[in-house]
Amino acid sequence: MNRTITHIVFMIAVVALGSLVGLLNIPGEWYQSLQKPFFNPPNWLFGPAWTTLYILIGIAGARTWLDGRYSIRMKIWFVQMGLNFLWSPAFFGLQSPLLGLVVILPLLIAILAFIRMSWPVDRIAAWLFVPYALWVAFATLLNLSIVVLN
Which N-terminal residues, if any, form the signal peptide (predicted)? Predict the structure, then answer.
């Protein structure tokens, strides 16, 4: 498979799976009834933010796959992707902000590990994960705040 096709496959797969997880775990009335911190973003922001992040994650994944599909970096990429896709079912599906927090903390660690491992060998892949790390750090604070407030 050539480089362009690999990038396209990764981007489509990540966006499609992320969208599917989102559609299967819609926040609904339960989430609306929760106390949220003053810095909670408007609901309309999450879709465009995650779509953009998923494209960046897909590109970083494709680059890592092309560099070494059995590398530790690729394994970390798959671990963070699994944790990412697990968060919505934990938080929204099971209606458990605490379980969401239990999932998002190792997710953030895996994202930071990916950046750290990628930095010396593929700075572009590392930089592609920086907005993701910032968003998930913010989401971790938001998740923690919801746990504390509720």
Answer: none
CB 58 within 8 A of CB 13: yes
Q: Which residue range(s) make up the domain with 27?
A: 3-149
CB atoms within 10 A of CB 18: 21
**Residue 44 is part of a domain; what is its CATH number?**
1.20.1260.100
Give burial (CB, 10 Å; 0-12/13-18/19+) of 49.
Answer: middle
* Residue tagged 């690729």 (tokens): 74
Query: DSSP state, 25?
Result: T
pTM higher than 0.85: yes
Cβ 117 vs Cβ 76: under 8 Å: yes
Helical spans, DSSP H, in the chain:
3-24, 28-33, 46-68, 72-88, 97-118, 123-149
CA atoms of 29 and 5, how far apart (whole Å)? 41
Count of residues for the chain? Answer: 150
Please state the domain count of the chain: 1
- On whether the CB atoms of residues 110 and 79 are closer than 8 A, the answer is yes
